[in-house]
Amino acid sequence: MTKLLFIVLLIAQTSFEPPTEVIHAEGSVLRSDHDTSINNELPPPRRLPSAVPKPQSAFQVPTDSSNPNIANSAIATNAENNAFDANYQSELFSLSGDFAAGSPDFPFSASPAEQVETSRPLADYWTPWHRFHQLMHRPTFVTRWSDAMWKSVGRSDSVTCDYGIGHERVMFAPSVVDTATSTPNIGLRFQNDRGLRTPDRAGYYWGVAPEGPGFDSGVNALDTTLRMEIGNKRIMALTDFNLRSLDPEEAPNTTGIGDIMIGAKLLMLDGQKLQLASVFRTYLPTGVARRGLGTGHTSLEQGLVARCCLSDRSYVFGEVKYWTPIGGDPDYSGDVLSTGLAFSTIGLESDVFALLPTLEFRTLTFLFGGRSDIGGNRQRVDGQTVLECYPGARLVLGPEGDLGLWELNFAAGFTLADDSWFDQRVLFGLRWNY
After folding, report:
1. Residues 6+ away with beta carbon under 8 Å from 352
2. What does each C-alpha distance from 352 to 163, 168, 264 come to in angstroms?
């Protein structure tokens, strides 16, 4: 009976494991494996001190080496302890991940939960597609050249979210479509048209016969315009002075002052994403209509222009305008409805330079009126619509100093929906913002 009781007690002692506790270097208990408060939630990640206490070896080396038997036993025990230490170090390296042994941030935990907790910050920097991302973003000749170029001016990495001068000017980038707001500026604009075959349509480009040249099979023209916008964000005064050079097929070549424009722009809605403004222009017949330098009548244009912010790098613009001739030929002159849509974004930027690509569309709908044919007869143009496309870009040259901020813009236009309008149109502009 006594032997049976002894065996039961021995089995119970060997099968019972007390709760394992992780002990801090100073001796305070961090957490028990049998702590029921954990549930499936782990506490915030933390690092244990580098001075992690090493567990005692399974074999104790005798200190008395006077006995040869004890000395031989000590040698064998030391070998076993060395193997134990090597196994212990390998476990530490497997838990350390990317940490170097002996570093201040060297982690160690005694329980699986602590291992997961310690390795969590390391796993946050890896994804299954990390290697694919590295392959796709391998530096090329273009990226190396671009980084070297922009590093000298302070914009070599967009990840830093450090905005350049392009974020300040992308909302004013279009060349053809009006913007809801603008900064005070003075600029020169050069517009070269080639192959314009119906210049007298509704009296929109030049006057009809006999006040103007009338029909022409192909006009090449260069308009040089001095443009000024003065005011503030809420209201701007607009003025254009035009110098026109003509090379028609039928009429003689000529150069002179064209019609002058004066107008105003008023901001009506100023939101964080959307801006809406009204614009009004008056075209004065200062150009000689008989030579094709002007329309020969006063014209009024009113409309709405809008701007919408898609992101801090991209904007979309829209406009609707109505052009009305006053005092023109009642048989030829007619109203024109124009609409526009533009998109601008940031291609490249730095502290002192920005490249802003643009894409613009404009439609001209001749609501009523007429034009002359080759025999001088009148042809109706009611409802005819012209679609123009203008891909281009704007260059910003900074930084803004005492002389303001300089900008260069370029756009190439072509007609999509009307063969009797112009063949090609090239726009080039220089603008000084002050």
Report:
1. 153, 165, 397, 398, 399
2. 11, 11, 31
Confidence of residue 77 (pLDDT cuts 50, 70, 90): low
Omega within 30 of 0 (cis) for the link into 45: no
Q: Residue 267: name the closest of 183, 145, 335 by CA.
A: 183
Q: Among 260, 244, 241, which residue's Cα sits nearest to residue 186?
A: 241
Q: What is the rounded distance in angstroms from the CA atom of residue 343 to the CA atom of residue 392? A: 10
Q: Are 326 and 203 in contact (CB under 8 A)?
A: no
284 near 262, Cβ under 8 Å? yes
Q: Is the pTM of this model over 0.85?
A: no
The whole-angstrom separation of Cα 391 and Cα 414 is 9
Q: What is the dihedral of CA 142, 147, 149, 154, to 10 degrees?
A: 160
pLDDT digits (tens, 9 = 90+) for 210-258: 888 888 888 999 999 999 999 999 999 999 999 999 999 888 899 999 9
H or E element, residue 5: helix 2-15
Backbone angles phi, psi at 113, to 5 degrees: -65, -40
For the chain, what is the total number of helices (H) and then of strands (E)? 6, 18
Using DSSP, state whether 339 is helix, strand or coil. strand
∠ CA(379), CA(380), CA(381), 5° rounding?
120
